[in-house]
Amino acid sequence: MDRDSSDEDDDRRNLTYRNDTTRSSFNVEELEPQMRRRSKLTFHKGYLFALVLPLLIVSIYFSTDIRSLFTSDISSFKFNTVSGQIRESQLQALQLLNQQQSSLLSIWNHTFVNSNNITTVQFDDIKATLLTQITLNKHIQQILLSPYKAGDTLQNGTALDPSSAGYSFHRCRKVDQKFSERRTIEWKPRRNKFLFAICLSGQMSNHLICLEKHMFFAAILNRALVIPSSRFDYQYNRVLDIEHINDCIGKKVVVPFEDFMKLKKNHAHIDKFICYFSTPQPCYMDEEHLKKLKSLGISMGKLEAAWKNEDVKNPSRKAVKDVEEKFGSDDDVIAIGDVYFADVERDWVLQPGGPIAHKCKTLIEPSKLILLTAERFIQTFLGSNFIALHFRRHGFLKFCNAKKPSCFYPIPQAADCITRMVERANSPVIYLSTDAAGSETGLLQSMIKMNGKTIPLVKRPPRNSAEKWDALLYRHGLEGDSQVEAMLDKTICAMANVFIGASGSTFTEDILRLRKDWGTASICDEYLCQGENPNFISGEE
User: Fold this and answer.
1) Which long-range contacts (CB under 8 A, 24 or more apart) does 444-453 make?
2) Residues 372, 374, 378, 384: what is their CA dihedral angle, to the nearest 10 degrees?
3) Are 101 and 134 in contact (CB under 8 A)?
4) Which of 173, 159, 150, 185 is nearest to 358 (CA)?
5) pLDDT attached to residue 269
6) Is the pTM of this model over 0.90?
7) Torsion of the alpha carbons at 502, 170, 373 and 363, rounded to the nearest 10
8) CA torsion, points 359, 485, 423, 107, in degrees to nearest 10?
9) 159-167: long-range contacts (C-beta < 8 A, 24 or more apart)?
10) For the residues of 238-282, what is the DSSP string, one character each?
11) Which pLDDT score, from 0 to 100, does residue 11 have?
């Protein structure tokens, strides 16, 4: 639970040479002998000379003398000599930089040919560091060349631009999902054959994963899927675009509960209610939920278990033939109990775009209103280059410490992990999706810095009428809905350059699904402090 971009200023310094102009002075003492001799002259001649002498001195003083001109010429000559030396040094530096760049590009092409001993991420880091040096080399050359307006051409070589020469490399580039290699199944519902989705485990993220698996089951069984009522489950139409699913498939494959009840004239009967799991509780269904179903006008028979010993804590792997064998039926309406933990054709289900043939990027995605709001928020606060962080804390300490290893990290350790990702992704800002207290996020913010600069953690601000990025939600009455806000958070995270998630969180897993399906997944995406153990773990109760 996004890839620091900093501005580089070109400092140009002009040396100003000031020439000292030496003015020659007229020595009065040299005239004293002459004045004594001239005293013998007649009075009127001495008086006339006394008047002329000061005028002569002033005239000579303010005139430009030969010494001054000579001194100026020497200074100008010296300046031209120094300027020539500077220019010669700059050209020599450019030639050396050009030679260095050629060597770096040669290393780029020929190094790490046998790179079996390093991971893909390590190899990418090395290449990215190398490209950074090539780019820096190019930048220095441009600065040295700028006073002469000589472009990128040197007398003895050419300053190559790595990106224009085909050496462009993005350390956190997008993952090639190979959509064309997807293995898919056609979803062709039989007339008046329905599958009633039952999803009861966990929060909204769990239910969305459960719903996606139900769609796969419905495609295998050739049935239309009935989306549960908001009186029994979440109000899916506030966060999902239900008709988007039908449009992507090209036929009516999902039916809102209200439309289903109209078809059944407000009295529907579930012919078979089959539980995928039998332990610890059949269908994950308690008496309260059974009463809710009956209050909706739904009648049903006895709950049946597909397998006697299928446990949610240790689900066995199943194939399509197992689903067809256990859930295949000619009955009009069947219900399958919670399939969130079901492990059916895992590789098929988890592939980009999912297991069902369709013409879109993904079937289950946020509503159009949420998508547009996310885009407006990004344009307002984040820009195109940001990291998204899902920082799960509330109730996570006990949950993580029950796992081996724990996934709950002290703030300083988490800050170090995040800072390393900022450096790697070169992103100037982080979007923070969290349930953490202000004391935790405040400390986290103070510790995430790069090159002495604080990297801001941006959260969605409270509603402000002066801001228009969330106006669509406000106008459509979706403001303040916790599920809408959660889906908005997921959408923003799914659009980030890089995503840091919380291990063990289904909220994170749903974001990773969207990133995978939308093609926004990065090779830098990872769980917080992935591969590390917390440097301190508390004892048990």
Assistant:
1) 444/391, 444/411, 444/414, 444/415, 444/418, 447/411, 447/412, 447/415, 447/416, 447/419, 448/415, 448/418, 448/419, 448/422, 449/419, 450/4, 450/419, 450/422, 450/423, 451/4, 451/6, 453/4, 453/6
2) -80
3) yes
4) 185
5) 94
6) no
7) -70
8) 0
9) 159/94, 159/97, 159/98, 159/101, 160/101, 160/102, 160/105, 162/105, 162/108, 162/131, 162/134, 162/135, 162/138, 165/105, 167/105, 167/108, 167/131, 167/134
10) GTB-HHHHHHHHTS--EEEHHHHHHHTTT-EEESEEEES--BSSG
11) 39
Q: Copy the structure tokens of residue 500.
A: 């840091």
Query: Looking at residue 503, what is its pLDDT?
Result: 95
User: What residue ranges of the chain have pLDDT lower than 70?
Assistant: 1-82, 85, 99, 102-103, 105-125, 127-129, 131-132, 135-136, 138-139, 142-143, 145-170
Q: How confident is the model at residue 81, as a pLDDT?
A: 64
Alpha helix positions (H), 342-402: 346-350, 368-377, 396-401
Q: Per the structure block, which two tokens stand in for 476?
A: 């459509």
pLDDT at res. 86 = 73
Q: Which amino acid is at 340?
A: Y
What residue type is 44 in one-letter code?
H
Q: Report how far Cα 298 is from the mean position of its chain's Cα atoms.
A: 46
Q: Which tokens belong to 336? A: 């399958």
